[in-house]
From TrEMBL, chain A:
InterPro entries: ArtM/GltK/GlnP/TcyL/YhdX-like (IPR043429), MetI-like (IPR000515), MetI-like_sf (IPR035906)
Protein function: Part of the binding-protein-dependent transport system for glutamine; probably responsible for the translocation of the substrate across the membrane.
Keyword rRNA processing: no
GO biological process terms on file: amino acid transport; transmembrane transport
Entry keyword Transport: yes
UniProt source species: Phyllobacterium myrsinacearum
Name of the protein this chain belongs to: Polar amino acid transport system permease protein
Membrane-spanning segments: 6-27, 39-61, 81-99, 111-130, 158-180, 187-205, 211-230
Pfam families: BPD_transp_1
Origin superkingdom: Bacteria
Localization per Swiss-Prot or TrEMBL: Cell membrane
Keywords: Amino-acid transport, Membrane, Transmembrane, Transmembrane helix, Transport
TrEMBL record, chain B:
Keywords: Amino-acid transport, Cell membrane, Membrane, Transmembrane, Transmembrane helix, Transport
Organism lineage: Bacteria, Pseudomonadati, Pseudomonadota, Alphaproteobacteria, Hyphomicrobiales
Residue ranges constituting the ABC transmembrane type-1 domain according to the UniProt record: 54-243
GO molecular function, a single term: transmembrane transporter activity
The species this protein was found in: Phyllobacterium myrsinacearum
Subcellular location: Cell inner membrane; Cell membrane
Keyword Cell membrane on entry: yes
One GO cellular component, as annotated: ATP-binding cassette (ABC) transporter complex
Superkingdom in the source lineage: Bacteria
GO biological process, alphabetically ordered: amino acid transport
Name the record gives this protein: Polar amino acid transport system permease protein
Membrane topology designation: Multi-pass membrane protein
Length: 247, 261
C-alpha cells in the first residue's frame, strides 16, 4: 500500500522533472524520516533548555549583585557576538576532548554530539531570551515593586510572582523570534554528525544528486515549523494578555 | 542646550565599554603567552594563515551584505507595491528565506551552482566562496526587505500631507522628510544583520571555503597538540568577538541616540 503510493508519487514528480527516487529505497527513506524526526526532537528539547537558561540569566542580570550580574553579562555578550558554529566546535572539539582526556578515553565520555548541540544552541538562544526578559523586568513600574515589598514579598518572590509574569508578556514577541532562530540553528548539528534533516539530506543527495528536491522539502519543513512557532507565540500572547496593562 | 545634550550622545567607540573589554582580552592574551611561551610561539607561526582565513570571512560578509542590501531594497519596494501580482511573489520569497536556516542555503548554493560558468566560450571559475556569499545574501535580502518595508510603513502618512501643505513637492518630501527618518530606523537593524552575517560566514567552512574556522581546523590537525588545539579554537572565538562586539555596541548606541525623544 505505502510502497505503491510512494511509487506513484515518484513517477508523478518525475513527470514534473523532480527526482524523488530515494523514497522507494527503504534504507534512504529511513535515514530521511529519522532525520526529520531528529530535527523535531532537537527543537523540542532545546526550546525548554533555552527558556530555563534565559530565565536564570535574566534573573542574574537584574539581581543587582555584582558576583551574579557580571559573569552573566560576560556570558551574554560573548555568546551573542560569536558564531554558534565556532561555539559548537569549541564545545565539541575542545571541551568534549578535554573531558574525554580527563576520563581516560572517548569511550568513557557520557556526552554525545546531541548533548553538545542542545547545550550550545540552547545557551546561545538563552542569551537572547535573557536580554529580552531583562528589558521586560526593568520596565516593571517601581510602584508595583513597592506594593509587592509592602505586602511582604522577598526578593525571589517578587522576581517569580511579579517581575517574571509581567516581563514574559513584554518579552514574548522577542522570545518567539528567538525560538524561530533556534529552530534554524539546530541545523549546525550536521557539522558534528548529529543525524538531523540537513545531515540526512546531504547523505542522500551525495548519492543521488537531487539537491533541489531535498532543498525544497527542507525549506518547506522549516517554513512549517517556524509558522507553527509563530502561531503558538501569537496564541500565547492573546491568552496571556492582561486587560488594561497595555502590553 | 538641547544641541549640547544631543551632541554628547553621539556614539563613539571610545566612550563605551568596547575599549576596556578589548584591552582586557589583549592583556589576557599577553599573560597567557607569558605562561605558555611554547603554545604562543606555535600560534604566532600560524597567525598569518589564520589571518588570511579571517580576511576571507570579512570579504564574504561585505559582499553578502552588499548584494543582500541591493536585492533587499528592490524586494522591499516590491512588497509595498499596490499591485498584488507584484507584491505576492516578493512576500512569498521573504517568508520562505527568512525562515530558512543559513547553513541549508549555503549547502544549496554550493551544490546547485556549477563550479565554472561558460560565458561566450570563456570558462569563468565559480569559486566556493562566491557560492557561500550568495547563500548568505539570500536570507540577508529577505531580512532587509522586511526592514525597508517596516521603515517606510512606520512613517505616518500624515507627514506626506503636512509636507505638501508646506509647499514641498513629492520628491522633496521623499528626499528631505521621509528618507532621513527611514535611514534612522533602518541603520540599527541593518547593522545587527551585518553582525549576524559576519558570524554566519563561519558556516562556509562546512562547504570547504578556507576561512578562519577552516584554517583553525587545518592548524589543529597539522600541529596535533592538545594545548594548541585549545588555543587555536579560542583564538577563533576571540577574533570573531573582537570583530562583532564593537559593531554590536555601536548599534546599541545608535539605537539609543535614534530613539524617539
Amino acid at each position: 500500500m505505502l510502497d505503491s503510493i510512494l511509487a506513484g508519487f515518484v513517477t508523478y514528480t518525475k513527470s514534473l522533472g523532480f527526482n524523488f527516487g530515494f523514497l522507494t529505497s527503504v534504507y534512504e527513506r529511513t535515514i530521511w524520516i529519522d532525520g526529520i524526526s531528529m530535527t523535531l526532537i532537537l527543537i523540542a528539547v532545546t526550546i525548554p533548555v533555552s527558556l530555563v537558561g534565559g530565565g536564570l540569566l535574566a534573573a542574574a542580570l537584574t539581581s543587582g549583585r555584582k558576583y551574579l550580574s557580571v559573569p552573566a553579562r560576560v556570558f551574554v555578550e560573548l555568546t551573542r557576538n560569536t558564531p554558534t558554529l565556532v561555539q559548537l566546535m569549541c564545545a565539541f572539539l575542545v571541551v568534549n576532548m578535554l573531558i574525554s582526556k580527563a576520563l581516560g578515553g572517548a569511550q568513557y565520555n557520557p556526552f554525545s554530539p546531541f548533548f553538545w548541540v542542545v547545550a550550545v544552541v540552547g545557551l546561545h538562544i538563552a542569551a537572547f531570551h535573557a536580554e529580552a526578559l531583562r528589558a521586560g523586568i526593568e520596565s516593571v513600574p517601581s510602584a508595583t515593586l513597592e506594593a509587592a515589598r509592602a505586602i511582604g514579598f522577598n526578593r525571589l518572590q517578587i522576581l517569580w510572582f511579579v517581575e517574571f509574569p509581567l516581563a514574559l508578556r513584554a518579552a514574548l514577541p522577542a522570545i518567539v523570534n528567538n525560538l524561530v532562530n533556534l529552530a534554524k540553528l539546530t541545523t549546525v548539528g550536521s557539522a558534528i554528525a548529529v543525524g538531523e534533516v540537513t545531515y540526512a539530506s546531504i547523505m542522500i543527495w551525495s548519492q543521488r544528486d537531487n539537491v533541489i528536491e531535498l532543498m525544497i522539502v527542507i525549506l518547506l519543513l522549516f517554513s512549517l515549523i517556524n509558522l507553527l512557532i509563530a502561531r503558538t507565540g501569537r496564541w500565547l500572547e492573546n491568552k496571556l494578555k492582561v486587560p488594561g496593562l497595555g502590553i | 542646550m538641547l544641541n549640547i545634550l544631543t551632541f554628547s550622545r553621539v556614539p563613539s567607540l571610545a566612550s563605551s565599554t568596547v575599549l576596556p573589554v578589548l584591552g582586557g582580552i589583549a592583556v589576557a592574551g599577553l599573560l597567557w603567552s607569558f605562561f605558555e611561551p611554547e603554545s604562543a610561539a606555535t600560534l604566532l607561526v600560524w597567525t598569518p594563515y589564520l589571518a588570511r582565513g579571517f580576511a576571507m570571512n570579512i570579504l564574504i560578509s561585505i559582499c553578502a551584505i552588499a548584494l543582500g542590501s541591493l536585492v533587499g531594497l528592490i524586494l522591499g519596494a516590491l512588497e509595498l507595491s499596490p499591485r498584488a501580482l507584484i507584491r505576492f511573489p516578493a512576500l512569498v520569497y521573504v517568508q520562505i528565506f527568512r525562515n530558512a536556516p543559513h547553513l541549508v542555503l549555503i549547502f544549496a548554493t554550493t551544490y546547485i551552482f556549477p563550479f565554472e560558468i561558460l560565458v561566450a566560450g570563456l570558462r569563468i571559475p565559480f569559486p566556493d566562496w562566491i557560492k557561500a556569499t550568495i547563500g548568505l545574501a539570500i536570507p540577508a535580502s529577505a531580512h532587509i526587505a522586511e526592514i525597508v518595508r517596516g521603515a517606510v510603513q512606520s512613517i505616518p502618512t500624515a507627514q506626506w500631507e503636512a509636507a505638501a501643505g508646506m509647499g514641498f513637492s513629492r520628491s522633496q518630501t521623499l528626499r528631505w522628510i521621509i528618507l532621513p527618518q527611514c535611514i534612522k530606523r533602518v541603520l540599527p537593524p541593518w547593522m545587527n544583520l551585518y553582525a549576524s552575517i559576519s558570524m554566519g560566514t563561519a558556516l562556509a567552512s562546512l562547504v570547504g571555503v578556507n576561512e578562519l574556522l577552516h584554517a583553525a581546523t587545518d592548524a589543529s590537525t597539522a600541529v596535533q597538540r592538545t594545548d594548541f588545539t585549545v588555543a587555536v579554537y579560542l583564538t577563533v572565538l576571540v577574533w570573531f568577538f573582537v570583530y562583532c562586539y564593537p559593531v554590536a555596541r555601536f548599534t546599541q548606541n545608535l539605537e539609543r541616540r535614534f530613539a524617539v525623544r
